[in-house]
């Protein structure tokens, strides 16, 4: 044991410049990520604002029993899964297609213009984008004017007040905001592909689509698998900022997601134990989804895990 400590000290002093950059981040994670884990004990207690973490009485699994019988919680689960699966089906594929299209553009200035335009929404907060959407989707907004001019509707209506359309509004607006930013990793991978592969394919008479399918996509397999794992693990973590901005009293039945439900129960109604129990349950399920997705993708990648 003493020999190991001595070796560690020697290695630490030899790399003190690198260690000085790493340890502040490690200390930050310990203070703000690991020590607060003790607060999860609230999920097994009846905690109020006048209690401390230690003084609150234990109630065991009572909060989890309440969750299982809470209809509003299960409604939020359905909404979360519905929106998340739509985002997975559309929002996961669009950045790949967009990245390939940008990569195939040969005119440098136009490529930079497209990249800039597609990246821009990512840097705008949901407060800004939400305000734009609320205006565009209102009765006198841009979308209603377009739909009326095209003859698709006869009378303008506030689209955001229709619960049946909310899932699509949430999905498409999220894709609009994040699709361009999601192309960065894919473009970085494609930039490293050996151009001789494409030259050999051209000599063999392969079209551009065949080159994309047999060269570009296979070389992106690892990063696609990684993004898929992270996306699947976050299926229960629908965007809270987006929900708080776009949700209203009319579309709440389809807009309420788990994160907003936890926020409302904890911060608005003060039921911190219940909110913590919901958050803990979601975290456990997310870890299970992460491990499962990793196992499945490793099977598809010749038993090689990307994590």
Automatic annotation (TrEMBL):
One of its GO terms (cellular component) is plasma membrane. One of its GO terms (biological process) is transmembrane transport. InterPro entries: MetI-like (IPR000515), MetI-like_sf (IPR035906), UgpAE/MalFG_permease (IPR050809). It holds the Pfam family BPD_transp_1. It is found in: Cell membrane. The chain crosses the membrane at residues 21-44, 81-103, 123-146, 166-191, 212-236, 272-291. CDD domains: TM_PBP2. Keywords: Cell membrane, Membrane, Transmembrane, Transmembrane helix, Transport. Belongs to the binding-protein-dependent transport system permease family. This is ABC transporter permease subunit.
């Amino acid at each position: 044991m003493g020999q190991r400590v001595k070796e560690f000290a020697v290695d630490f002093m030899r790399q003190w410049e690198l260690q000085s950059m790493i340890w502040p981040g490690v200390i930050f994670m310990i203070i703000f990520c690991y020590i607060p884990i003790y607060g999860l004990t609230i999920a097994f207690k009846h905690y109020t604002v006048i209690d401390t973490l230690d003084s609150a009485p234990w109630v065991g699994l009572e909060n989890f029993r309440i969750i299982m019988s809470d209809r509003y919680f299960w409604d939020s689960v359905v909404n979360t899964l519905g929106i998340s699966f739509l985002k997975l089906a559309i929002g996961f594929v669009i950045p790949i297609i967009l990245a390939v299209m940008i990569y195939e553009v040969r005119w440098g200035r136009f490529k930079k213009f497209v990249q800039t335009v597609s990246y821009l929404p990512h840097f705008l907060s949901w407060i800004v984008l939400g305000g734009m959407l609320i205006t565009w989707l209102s009765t006198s907004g841009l979308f209603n004017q377009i739909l009326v001019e095209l003859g698709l509707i006869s009378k303008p209506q506030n689209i955001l007040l229709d619960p049946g359309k909310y899932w699509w509004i949430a999905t498409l607006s999220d894709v609009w905001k994040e699709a361009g930013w999601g192309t960065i990793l894919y473009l970085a991978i494609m930039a490293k592909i050996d151009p001789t592969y494409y030259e050999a394919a051209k000599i063999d008479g392969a079209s551009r689509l065949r080159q994309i399918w047999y060269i570009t996509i296979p070389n992106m397999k690892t990063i696609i698998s990684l993004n898929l794992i992270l996306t699947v693990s976050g299926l229960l973590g629908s965007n809270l900022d987006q929900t708080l901005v776009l949700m209203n009293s009319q579309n709440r039945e389809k807009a309420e997601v788990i994160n907003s439900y936890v926020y409302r129960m904890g911060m608005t109604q003060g039921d911190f134990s219940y909110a913590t129990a919901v958050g803990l349950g979601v975290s456990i399920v997310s870890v299970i989804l992460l491990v499962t997705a990793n196992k499945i993708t490793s099977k598809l990648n010749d038993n090689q895990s990307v994590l």
